[in-house]
Amino acid sequence: MNTRRALHLCAGWHHPWSATAPFWDDFFQDIGLQCSKHEDLDAGCAALAQQDHDLLVVSALRWTMAGNERYAPYRAEWAYDMPAAARQAITGHLQRGGALLAVHAASISFDTWPEWEDMVGGRWVWGQSGHPPFGRVQTRITRADHPLTQGVADFESQDEVYGHLRRAPHSTVLAESRAEGGDWMPTVWCHEWQGARVCYDALGHQLESFSSPEHRRLLKQAVGWLLDSNKTSGAHS
User: Fold this and answer.
1) What are the tens digits of pLDDT across the range 6-32?
2) Distance CA 208, CA 212 (A)
């Protein structure tokens, strides 16, 4: 039996790989996925183009950092405008039937690439989206009959709640989260892009964000759904 392969584009401004690596290393080992991780996004996308992978995981925070002088001191190290070759590598992966798990800051990344929003099913919109400070977060399951969430209980964690994202209306919201005293915001959804399965989880800022057994279970079931070889398009949408 062939080992399934994943490729993880990770890290970025204020999101160093070391902050969440212990979770992701154990996670991929636990679910039996051979995963290569890439903080160099161009190199990672080149590897994605050179060899078929079953799953692409994106938890990076890389964007052009344009339009706000707050980010001027960080642009030399972190500003990123995804080149055509990298875009084609991701597009080709999905068009071949590969799956996508987008996590947390993935919705901010690749801001000059409109198709990325279509793939993820949503995007952070500057001037509209935001999040309260890192702290106690409640998450509730809103669609308990989906394979991603069956048997997953509501949970609490330490995290950031991304709110007021622009979300594609055809996506299926599976969970909502809120900070203490805040409003409930859609934080986990799934959909299909040109037949490829996609799941977005807006949680996952730091290692503590994955401390809940229910959050880990949700992610494991998400990968199970994403890689289901017997999937039927739209069966659970």
Assistant:
1) 999 999 999 999 999 999 999 999 999
2) 8
- State residue 3's pLDDT score: 83
Instruction: Assign 198 to helix, strand or coil.
Output: strand
Q: What's the number of domains the chain is made of?
A: 1
> Where residue 229 falls among pLDDT bands split at 50, 70, 90?
low
Structure-block tokens of residue 90: 């991701």
Closest CA to 195 of 137, 154, 234, 149: 234
User: Contact, 42 vs 83, CB < 8 A?
Assistant: yes
- Prediction pTM value: 0.95
Q: Tell which residue, 129, 122, 135, has the closest CA to residue 205.
A: 135
For residue 234, tell me if it sits in a domain: no
**Residues of the domain holding 124:** 5-226
* Residue 231 belongs to a domain: no
Q: Please, is 141 exposed, middle or buried when counting C-beta atoms within 10 Å of its C-beta (0-12, 13-18, 19+)?
A: buried
